[in-house]
Design goal:
Radius of gyration: 17 Å
Low-confidence stretches: 1-120, 181-238
Structural class: alpha+beta
Number of strands: 10
Helix content: 25-40%
Shape: globular
Largest sheet: 4 strands, antiparallel
Oligomer: single chain
Number of helices: 7
Mean pLDDT: 47
DNA sequence: AGCCTTTGACCAGCG
DNA sequence: TCGCTGGTCAAAGGC
């Protein structure tokens, strides 16, 4: 039902794969956007990989690798360490980078184009407390703390040279639910909808939403879809 | 006023 | 001990 509520808005952007056991993976403009505990409770990465492999590979082979990678992270102890995908499809020329979660940069568009560069739209509030150029300055690494009182969770976000997130490392576990919708409005309303989508009453589900953070280089086969999405955002339509 | 990012300084671990 | 590296602090300024 959450999917039904959400998909009407995001139908331009979503590719989705529903698996037989009820798992539902969302791929938002190439980002592996949402993992919920209910999605992840049963399968190991290996199982998911095999299930995904049974699907039409034409949907997006990279997606299967992302799903497998994220699931591996899900069941591993912290810190979570996600390596970047080795391959990504070619983007249309007007669009070099779109990350629905935290970075949305459209190049070749007017200066009014949307740029979302926030630490996370994962339902938690983060405060950046440092940034370092690591690995010889090749990859700037940002350090974030959860702003919730008494919550010690920290997140390290590593960016590639072109600004894409190539690695997110979480340390600790949240001791609270995700924050209210209020702050999500800061992200142009998109995340508010995501919150609706993931707004299960099951708090244990919410606690796993960090995995929404995995930003990936976009996998877009239809530039027009993004153009229409951008129009919607620019019109201020939440 | 409160919260945020930025950024140089500082600190700890390691070879 | 020294230098390097990664992580954190905290002042300053912006929104």
């Amino acid at each position: 039902s959450n999917w039904d509520r959400c998909s009407s808005w995001f139908q331009l952007a979503f590719h989705h794969i529903s698996l037989r056991n009820g798992m539902c993976f969302l791929l938002v403009q190439g980002n592996f956007e949402t993992f919920h505990e209910q999605d992840l409770a049963l399968p190991t990465a290996q199982v998911v990989h095999s299930k995904c492999s049974m699907l039409d590979q034409a949907v997006n082979p990279s997606f299967i690798r992302v799903a497998t990678s994220a699931l591996t992270s899900q069941h591993a102890s912290y810190p979570v360490n996600v390596t970047p995908l080795p391959e990504v499809p070619t983007l249309p020329p007007q669009l070099s980078s779109v990350n629905a979660e935290s970075t949305c940069v459209l190049q070749g568009l007017p200066s009014s184009s949307i740029t979302l560069d926030r630490p996370a739209v994962d339902g938690y509030n983060w405060r950046k407390y440092g940034q370092k150029a690591v690995k010889g300055g090749e990859y700037p690494k940002s350090y974030y703390k959860c702003t919730h009182r008494d919550c010690l969770v920290r997140k390290n976000v590593e960016h590639s040279a072109d600004g894409r997130i190539v690695q997110i490392i979480y340390r600790g576990q949240h001791t609270h639910e995700r924050s209210s919708k209020r702050r999500f409005k800061d992200y142009g309303g998109i995340s508010e909808d995501l919150d609706d989508f993931s707004g299960s009453t099951d708090t244990s589900v919410r606690s796993q939403s960090d995995y929404q953070d995995y930003c990936r280089k976009p996998i877009i086969s239809n530039g027009d879809m993004v153009g229409r999405l951008v129009e919607k955002i620019q019109d201020g339509d939440e």
